[in-house]
């Protein structure tokens, strides 16, 4: 095993006929097939040995530990105190101010009724508090999952011509996404999401951000008839072929609030202590634009408004779930893709902030929590939700101490649903478009892309394929092509493993690559090779050829 932790094998080949005979090495102890199978299953599916906590415990203690494992709230809940609540209260109210306008905006991105964005910010966070293990994750709708769900479903069903069927498909897709996510956690198959590498996510999220931002040109310019296609070329054609629908009043309002939101974001980036500026800016813009829209009767000046939103908390939606008909394959496919994407984002965000605050997030628990959150959500008029990076960052900066901040946010959303919905009647759609553009800009990480170029050119190529595939073809095909390239790279590394000739560092027992370390010297009479992959049937012929070639060179 190489000191770096990667799986490597080093072979010493005697190339000197006069060299002394090597001492034989004893064979390892014989093990039964059943024993080897048990070891393989444990190392593959249970590397963290979750049952270790139960060893040597009394039955009562085992039951308590089992309940705490399934419901993490039982572990931290009894230790909760007023001091922690004060911090969570502030952070909860802060993220609620961001979640309310973002929820409405992302629902429109998914082509579902705007009220579903608020429903999805009320019930799912309450489920996550009970089942989740992250202290910082702020749960709710996110831009990428909303975009993917909306674009995949509208390929077959128009949200304008048949909104009721579209809503049913969205809720059913959420159910399948939740079932798939929970199954990954229960069966401990989380390694599947590792196929979405950092390079793929960088390119995919940047491409999706561009597509999402371009889609908001419909709202920013006031265009009424816009293409359903998500690719950049049809979108730009639609923008410039509909110049007669552009509304200068809408453009003026849209760019004014967009500038305000971008300035607020810039201030918070430059001075992190002023995180509340960017967190509160969307809600402030919604309030100001709503008042302005009401005062000037914006709907009479070509500025579209949200209109009436129903009051009350989430209604049951079990009767809207459909499991037959011609669209069953569509909802399963949509649920699978949105489930993978939202799960990847949620776990990545949770682990990021856990590392910053030096605590551990259990990936399998998170999969079960996010999955069950969506299963419950789809029965209460919620579409797919996960941990949001922007809201989680605000939650962390606001000083959240536990998942209780999600409860505070949910209560704030509940008050909004019960009493404040009529106030959103005059909210201009153009402001929601500006909020979305500001939110997705943060998904474009140029410094990370540059670092990827410096480290691994092939991964940089994968990133570019994901980016251009998303913006020129489609979200799902761009992602699929990038994943295919990554798997191809993995197969190449297995079938054509790198072989390195090693030499001894004088005066030590350390062996290093002869091409990287000038002071390393060959050991007389031996050819020392390091094979940077396991030896198996797919690479044995290649390795034999490399070995013969190395011997000929010497």
TrEMBL record:
The keyword Membrane applies. It is a multi-pass membrane protein. The chain crosses the membrane at residues 112-130, 165-187, 199-217, 246-264, 276-296, 407-425, 431-453, 460-488. GO terms for cellular component: membrane. It is found in: Membrane. It holds the Pfam family Sulfate_transp. Keywords: Membrane, Transmembrane, Transmembrane helix. GO terms for molecular function: secondary active sulfate transmembrane transporter activity. Residues 85-466 form the SLC26A/SulP transporter domain. Gene3D superfamilies: STAS domain. InterPro entries: S04_transporter_CS, SLC26A/SulP_dom, SLC26A/SulP_fam, STAS_dom_sf. PROSITE patterns: SLC26A. This is Putative SLC26A/SulP transporter. It comes from Lupinus albus.
